[in-house]
Amino acid sequence: xxxxxxxxxxxxxxxxxxxxxxxxxxxxxxxLKMNHQFPAAAAGSKIDQWFADEIKKATNGEVEIQIxxxxxxxxxxxxxxxxxxxxxxxxxxxxxxxxxxxxxxxxPNSIAMGMDNICQSSAIMKAFMTKIPAFDEEAKKxxxxxxxxxxxxxxxxxTKEPVTKLSDLKGKKIRTWGEDxxxxxxxxxxxxxxxxxxxxxxxxxxxxIDGCPFSVDFVETYKIYEVAxxxxxxxxxxxxxxxxxxxxxxxxNLSPAHQEVIMQTANRAREREIVKTAEAGVAARKLLIExxxxxxxxxxxxxxxxxxxxxxxxxxxxxxxxxxxKEKEAIQTVELWKDMRSWIVCP
Length: 347
Description:
This protein is α/β, with parallel strands linked by helices and 347 residues long. It is built from 14 helices and 11 strands. The strands form 3 sheets. A 5-stranded mixed sheet has the order 2-1-3-10-4, sandwiched between helices. Strands 8-5-9-11 form a 4-stranded mixed sheet. It has a two-stranded parallel sheet with strand order 6-7.
């Protein structure tokens, strides 16, 4: 066989192989790297792993999400930059860490005493994403695509010493984040201290802080009960937690069929999480009591004092958005927020 004939045969066989692959539906595997700000043991993290597993199953392994837990690919505050640059494909990140870049998404993740339960959190955030165009515009501007948002059980006040009235917080150093939580603590006479989640245990242990707002299941996950054994039944914050975000570039590289699978799986994850989050809260309370944690009531009159001392979180946010030319959209957001909060309760 001469060289020309042999080369022609090789080219022909290669072409046939390619045609066979296309016609038989074989496609290259897509591996998506996801940086996650929480450990794998958290209740919501388990939902994210389920989400990844279901997508791999539904796409016959054509799309696989590899999750890097506890900020393995970069610090929590770096996630937005990492997504924009394409260094990562996805992130499990809290919008509250980016109040300047994501003011609409950050508001429900940050505004103190703005919601009461996980059912409000789930429904209100979904309504924002579907009914208020400013949220979609903000995501596009930043080159990201939110898929769904997680739930956290209410953030109660976790402290080393008991707190049963507002005056007990005077002078106490309390962990905060974002722009509004520090003002909530200041209104109570406390001192806000910005600390990231992985640093909580050590800073409580060393006395750098006296307490933190935290959900009961996170108190279990991070073993905070070993260094702080008092929980006051006052909801300092409740709202959507971290979101599952795509880099817009990575999203557009997916086929429409794979995008549809991801969105359908995201809706199932949302529905699944309400039950799983509530169950995690019940189980955590039981364990914490066994570990010697004391739960304290916070009287209604003391809560009223705190609320009266607080700044106007909603009004201030609207004023901030006015300076950005988004007053109308901010008012629309707050009106929808307050309306849904007034009637949504958990079963």
